[in-house]
Each structure stands twice: as structure tokens, then as C-alpha cells.
Design brief:
This protein has 214 residues and is an alpha+beta fold. Helices cover 42% and strands 20% of the residues.
Length: 214
């Protein structure tokens, strides 16, 4: 028979093993985790499964877990995606959503990854990969700390330029709306927009719209 410990209010909390306590401590620090991160400490995947059964942690996606009472908020999918594809950078529609520059709520998390690399599908997290290279991949990356984990996302000006570069995939209207909102809200300067337009090689495309704004 499984033993339980009593908590306030008469509720019973299932007792955890030493290995399960390691998982809980790791999640309190890291926010989200994958079983392989604790394999070197002798913690098997089954301990994550047992903690899910006990209601102490939740499975965000295949192989990705968080504390059951963690407040990951609306960015839960971004955190899970960054854990699943650690070399990726949140981009395009997902970056617009993160920065509050669109009312769209994309079903997939858009992530930029190196053109020469291989990336998995994300282990159950719906991810849409975009293949970047050179400065278009490395420039304009911001780091934001959320619930114990650092996520990487492109800044506003870089995201606007990316949207023009990928206008055939996401729509020119989306790119134009992002540019207008970034400009009117003073979230991006003309110099920043021009800089990333050149990096993304869309300066000629953006020029007439930039001139109309200014």
C-alpha cells in the first residue's frame, strides 16, 4: 500500500522518493526539464512518470516536464519549444506575438535554426522551423528569463525585417502591420529597421513602405 504524508487542510500528498525529489529541485531551478538532464545523477525517466501520476509535475510535451503549480502563463509553448530545440530562436509570427505586435495566436511556434544543422520536430510541441544563416541568424537575438529558463527571441526591428523576408509565407499584410505598429509605438527606430533590412536583404522591398511612414 502506498504511504502518504498529511498536509494542511486534511489533504494527503503522495510521498516522493529521493530520486523524485531531485527532479522537483531541478524543476524549481530550471522551470522545465527533460529526463536526460538528470540521467547522470541516476534519475530514470520512470521517476518523471511517477511524479506525473502523483500530480506533482505535468508533461508539457513529449519528454518535457514542469511543476504542476508552475505559472508558465501564455508563454508556456515558447518555453517548451526552446527546451525542445535549444539552438533555435523564436521568430516571425511567434516573435510578433511575444512582443505584442500582432493579435494572431499562431498554433505553431516559429523558430529559426541554422541552415546547416539538423533539428528535431520538437517532441510533441508544434514547431514551424525557418532556416536562417549568417548574420540573419545571429543578429538581433534577445534573451529573456522566464520561470527559471532563458528563451531566445529576435528583437522587434529584426522581426519586422524577417517578416518582410518571409512575406510569401506569412503574408505581406502581416509584415506591414508589424512595421506600422513598431513605428507608431516607438518600438523600433528607422536606423534599426534599415540595419536589419540590409542584414536580411530586404532593403529594396521595405524602402517604399519605410518612406511612406517617415
Amino acid at each position: 500500500m502506498q504511504r502518504h504524508t498529511k498536509t494542511g487542510g486534511g489533504k494527503r500528498t503522495p510521498k516522493v522518493s529521493a530520486a523524485e525529489e531531485k527532479v522537483l529541485r531541478h524543476l524549481r531551478h530550471a522551470g522545465v526539464a527533460r529526463p536526460r538532464e538528470l540521467a547522470a545523477e541516476g534519475v530514470a525517466r520512470e521517476h518523471f512518470c511517477r511524479l506525473v501520476q502523483k500530480g506533482r509535475i505535468v508533461r508539457l510535451a513529449r519528454g518535457i516536464y514542469a511543476l504542476a503549480d508552475a505559472d508558465l502563463g501564455e508563454h508556456e509553448s515558447l518555453i517548451a519549444a526552446c527546451k525542445a530545440v535549444p539552438m533555435g530562436v523564436i521568430c516571425l509570427l511567434s516573435s510578433l506575438r511575444f512582443h505584442g505586435l500582432t493579435t494572431q495566436a499562431p498554433f505553431e511556434v516559429w523558430m529559426a535554426v541554422p541552415r546547416s544543422s539538423w533539428a528535431s520536430s520538437g517532441g510533441g510541441v508544434p514547431i514551424r522551423l525557418a532556416w536562417f544563416s549568417g548574420p540573419a541568424l545571429t543578429e538581433g537575438v534577445e534573451e529573456h528569463r522566464m520561470d527559471g529558463m532563458t528563451i531566445r527571441v529576435y528583437g522587434v526591428a529584426k522581426t519586422v525585417a524577417d517578416c518582410f523576408k518571409y512575406r510569401n509565407k506569412i503574408g505581406l499584410d502581416v509584415a506591414l502591420e508589424a512595421m506600422r505598429d513598431a513605428w507608431s509605438q516607438k518600438r523600433a527606430s528607422a536606423d534599426d529597421l534599415w540595419r536589419y533590412a540590409r542584414i536580411c536583404r530586404v532593403a529594396n522591398v521595405m524602402r517604399p513602405y519605410m518612406e511612406a511612414l517617415s
